[in-house]
UniProtKB/TrEMBL annotation:
Known catalytic reactions: 8 isopentenyl diphosphate + (2E,6E)-farnesyl diphosphate = di-trans,octa-cis-undecaprenyl diphosphate + 8 diphosphate
Function noted in UniProt: Catalyzes the sequential condensation of isopentenyl diphosphate (IPP) with (2E,6E)-farnesyl diphosphate (E,E-FPP) to yield (2Z,6Z,10Z,14Z,18Z,22Z,26Z,30Z,34E,38E)-undecaprenyl diphosphate (di-trans,octa-cis-UPP). UPP is the precursor of glycosyl carrier lipid in the biosynthesis of bacterial cell wall polysaccharide components such as peptidoglycan and lipopolysaccharide.
Pfam families the UniProt entry points to: Prenyltransf
Species of provenance: Agaribacter flavus
Subunit annotation: Homodimer.
The protein's name: Ditrans,polycis-undecaprenyl-diphosphate synthase ((2E,6E)-farnesyl-diphosphate specific)
Source organism, top-level taxon: Bacteria
Keyword Transferase tagged: yes
């Protein structure tokens, strides 16, 4: 058993009675307010938020979550003051450089979703290299949403689908939810189970609109830089205690769960 196997073993034990979500997404909100209450500039909060990203990836890796999608920069965030946007871009570049080796060592696949065309050529190149280096890793997928918008994702999928129809690769009569799903940016990831938003607001802010169809929502007042492994565990435990009915009755769900009862 190597270190990774030992960690998996310990956590499988710890998680024995917990339903671990396969795919968790997080709206990492509250960096600016975290800095402002400390009398600092907003960008200080973005830098502090990097530690919370590390803690979340560590918790996801150890708890058996398969995919973690993190909202790092929305298509609307370009409208912020130029200095703040600049700091966020530099931070993204810096973190890519400093973290990718560690992700790779921990068998983590790294991916970025969003419209990358406005990013500098060097940042696009770094993203591509990181994705290629880690593409066969299995333990966890860390998926960063950068210049991402849920409506963009749906429109982009529609455009690509139309192209396939024009090239006669797809017949309009073949188009159904499952085919459409294969064109959105999360096509290779499990369905979204849990959406967490830190920072106290109760909204989606144009995040994974298509993917949220049957996700559970978890809102916390904790500001992103304070979101640590315990806070993530609390969200997963809350998720685990919920009954997801997917349109069925509670009794139907209880019958099928008792057939699978593990604890
Ligand atoms: C989230 O924190 C990070 C990004 C949007 C990049 P905010 O910067 O939105 O922090 P608040 O919501 O203003 O406190
Ligand atoms: C959502 O947070 C985007 C990210 C966390 C990257 P915002 O702070 O931009 O969202 P609003 O403006 O409060 O809706
Ligand atoms: Mg915010």
């Amino acid at each position: 058993m190597d270190v990774n196997d030992l960690a998996d073993h310990a956590n499988n034990k710890e998680n024995a009675c917990i339903k671990v979500p396969k795919h968790v997404a997080i709206i990492m909100d509250g960096n600016g307010r975290w800095a402002q209450v400390r009398g600092k500039r907003r960008t200080f909060g973005h830098k502090a938020g990097v530690e919370a990203v590390r803690a979340s990836v560590k918790y996801a890796r150890e708890s058996g979550i398969q995919s973690l999608t993190l909202f790092a920069f929305s298509s609307e965030n370009w409208k912020r003051p130029q200095e703040e946007v600049g700091v966020l871009m530099d931070l993204f570049s810096f973190v890519l450089k400093s973290e990718v080796k560690r992700l790779h060592k921990n068998d983590i696949r790294f991916k970025v979703i969003g419209d990358l065309s406005p990013f500098s050529a060097s940042l696009q190149k770094k993203i591509k290299q990181a994705e290629e280096l880690t593409q066969n890793n299995q333990a966890l997928t860390v998926n960063i949403a950068a210049n991402y918008g849920g409506r963009w994702d749906i429109v982009n999928a529609a455009k690509r689908l139309v192209e396939e129809v024009q090239e006669a690769k797809v017949k309009p009569s073949d188009i159904d939810e499952s085919l459409f799903d294969s064109f959105v940016s999360t096509a290779d990831l499990p369905d979204l189970d849990l959406l967490i938003r830190t920072g106290g607001d109760h909204r989606i802010s144009n995040f994974l609109l298509w993917q949220c169809a049957y996700a559970e929502f978890y809102f916390t007042d904790t500001l992103w830089p304070d979101f640590n492994e315990d806070a993530f565990r609390a969200a997963v435990e809350d998720f685990s205690s919920r009954q997801r009915r997917f349109g069925l009755t509670g009794e139907q769900i209880m019958t099928s769960e008792s057939e699978l009862q593990a604890c």
